[in-house]
Every structure is written in structure tokens, then in C-alpha cells.
Specification:
This protein has helices spanning 2-23, 30-37, 39-49, 57-82. It is mainly α. Helix 1 (2-23) runs antiparallel to helix 3 (39-49). The longest helix has 26 residues, at 57-82. The protein starts with a helix and ends with a helix.
Length: 83
Amino acid sequence: MESLFLVAVVTFLLNLPFGWLREGVKKFSFLWFLYVHIPIPFIIAMRIGLGIPWKFAPLLILIAVFGQYVGARLRKRTVAVEG
């Protein structure tokens, strides 16, 4: 169970900067697509390497989306404060 927690935390933290970057580019552009998808192979490799079953994949997807969301919100907040 510790390995699931580790993968969940790393999934969230890995997606934060990509959410930040994604917020700064045009929606559905090539870079937007890359920022959404670049973390996925690393998360899959970590999940497989630590023996986390497939049944936890939906949870990890939700955590990744939440990480992207929080990263984007942080950028919006930072830009609003600076601008």
C-alpha cells in the first residue's frame, strides 16, 4: 500500500509543472497536447515497476488530472498577482 501512496504523490507532483506550462499555451495546440501527455509514460512505468495493479489506473488518472488542474490554477493566481 505504501507503493500506491508513493505513486499517487509522485503522479500529483509530476503533473503540477505540466499543468503550469499547459495553462500558458493555446488550448489544444501541439504544446498543450504534449504537456498533458508527457507525464503519462513515467507514471505507467512507475506503476508497473512497483507492481501496482491496473485497477488503480483510474485513481491515478484522477490524481494526474487534479495535479494538472492545481498547476494551472497556481499559474493563473501567480499571473493575476503579478499583472
